[in-house]
Specification:
single chain, 525 residues, mainly alpha, Growth Hormone, Chain: A, 2 domains, two-stranded parallel ribbon, globular
Length: 525
């Protein structure tokens, strides 16, 4: 006999429970959701652990690279870490202000304010900067606190910018230009610190190359993070930059005490004779090869300042015919310049056997050709090529200058040479920036043509002046001093020079200094 399953009857009054099938289905869905949630949590946790392990691995490798070859013992590793955070903060500031400062303010008003604050801040700094080094030498912890002050100033200004970037504060441009000035001041103070932290067997060119590479890595790591933060608003990427500069300030204060030492060092002078008066710092004339490399470096640095100020407004008001937005074109040109900087660091390490005097002329001519082509064939492609060439030339020319200073200047005055050369290059950057602000944006080829003319005249001056300096140097090499006479008494034998004097004697024998006739000890002729 077959039995039939009874049909479910109506639910009693007040019974709101779902049917049995629905209850089983809900239980299955709940269990599935719970399992999926637990799997998601486990996946997120595993990804977090993997990211943490990768971050720790990268951090260990970076620390190992920074401390390699004695850099940890000499203190150079601390300066490398500080420069990493410095460039990371600069990249965050650039990304924060790229879409807010230049694109929210009318072009005419923006150019006027930039010119005003650039003149009020940068020119006085460029004039006073040669006095900063000797002034800080007389105080303990002078350079460390000077470097830290440039970091702390940028941290404060970034926090101030974060509160005013979305409004109409009249101090917006002042704070932005203050960040730029502090960044340039940092470059000068850092240049005087690197020679004091060299490990044994390290050259200045190699140390500067390692510091520059750390800066490029810092900018590359920080730029995407700053871009993500800027999606929530430019104020958040500025707060991110504030944190980076706070860390950099701490790193600056923790630099070794050797940064402040100036024992046995001297000063460089562009004109005049060398001297070594008792109780005074030794003054040494800049060799002709260094002066030539410094003048040649002013060309790429001038072009860098010009392009930064001119392109920021040109691509906004008078862009070339293209479907790209102004923001994207600026990002393309800036990205090409950054790629050029990276390529310059790589090229400097591969071209160590190339004569620096030849290389610095080649990059100067390359800059001239690039801006000439960008003027004749005004377009996005040629502007990107110009940015790439300018970044490459600026970096490679600076390495050539560093190499020349390392080769031709005694170690006791190399710190002064680096500080003075960086100050001169910053002044060239300011001149280029002022020209970029002053030139009209329409037609575009007019402003670029003026830059071509200025850079061409400077290139001719460098090449002609280099020939004259070479002739003077050859004349000094052939000069053997006045002949000795029989009436001159024979000077007594000199005792062995002390270590501090030995470097002076060795440097005075170099061909760029004029040998002086020796006098007897009683002072008679």
């Amino acid at each position: 006999m077959t039995s039939e399953r009874p049909e479910p009857g109506p639910a009693p009054d007040g019974d709101t429970r779902p049917p049995a099938g629905a209850r089983h289905l809900g239980a299955g869905l709940g269990a599935g959701l719970g399992t999926g949630a637990r799997a998601t949590v486990r996946g997120v946790a595993a990804a977090g652990r993997a990211t943490g392990r990768a971050s720790r691995y990268v951090g260990r490798q970076a620390s190992r690279a920074a401390n390699a070859e004695g850099a940890g013992e000499s203190g150079l590793a601390r300066l490398i870490q500080m420069h990493f955070f410095n460039t990371a903060g600069d990249a965050a500031v650039a990304i924060s202000l790229a879409g807010s400062l230049f694109f929210q303010v009318p072009s005419g008003e923006a150019r006027g304010q930039v010119a005003l604050f650039l003149g009020l801040t940068m020119l006085p700094f460029a004039v006073v900067a040669p006095l900063i080094g000797p002034f800080l030498d007389r105080f303990a912890h002078g350079r460390r606190w000077a470097i830290g002050a440039t970091m702390a100033m940028r941290a404060f200004l970034c926090w101030a910018l974060a509160t005013s970037v979305t409004g109409d504060s009249p101090w917006l441009f002042a704070a932005a230009l203050g960040v730029l000035v502090s960044s340039k001041a940092y470059g000068v103070t850092r240049a005087a610190a690197v020679p004091r932290l060299l490990p044994a067997g390290f050259t200045l060119v190699r140390a500067n190359g390692r510091v520059s590479l750390a800066g490029i890595i810092g900018a590359a790591v920080s730029a995407p993070l700053a871009g993500l933060a800027s999606l929530a608003g430019p104020e958040w990427s500025l707060r991110y930059a504030f944190l980076l500069f706070v860390v950099a300030t701490v790193c600056a204060i923790r630099l070794p005490a050797a940064v402040d030492s100036s024992v046995g060092e001297g000063d460089l002078v562009l004109r005049g004779d060398s001297d070594a008066e008792p109780g005074r710092r030794t003054r040494t004339r800049i060799p002709p090869a260094v002066a030539f490399a410094l003048r040649a470096n002013c060309g790429p640095r001038f072009l860098s300042g010009f392009l930064l100020m001119y392109m920021a407004f040109l691509l906004r008001e008078n862009p070339p015919a293209t479907s790209l937005s102004a923001e994207l074109m600026i990002a393309l040109v800036v990205g090409a310049a950054g790629a050029g900087n990276t390529a310059g660091v790589a090229a400097a390490s591969m071209l160590r056997r190339i004569n620096p005097a030849v290389a610095v002329v080649v990059v100067l001519l390359a800059d001239l050709v690039a801006i000439l082509l960008a003027t004749l064939f005004y377009g996005v492609l040629w502007l990107a090529v110009l940015g790439l060439t300018a970044g490459l030339a600026q970096t490679l020319a600076k390495f050539c200058l560093d190499s020349t200073i390392q080769r031709d200047i005694a170690s006791r005055v190399q710190a002064s040479a680096f500080a003075r050369s960086d100050t001169t290059l910053q002044l060239a950057w300011v001149v280029g920036g002022f020209l970029g602000i002053a030139l009209p944006l329409e037609p575009a080829r007019l402003g670029l043509g003026v830059a071509v003319a200025v850079l061409g005249c400077w290139t001719a001056y460098v090449l002609i002046g280099g020939r004259s300096a070479a002739r003077r140097d050859a004349a000094l090499r052939q000069y053997d001093g006045p002949p000795a006479t029989a009436a001159d008494p024979e000077p007594a034998a000199d005792p062995a020079p002390a270590p501090a004097e030995a470097s002076s004697v060795a440097y005075d024998d170099m061909p760029d200094t004029q040998p002086m006739p020796r006098l007897p000890r009683d002072g008679s002729a």
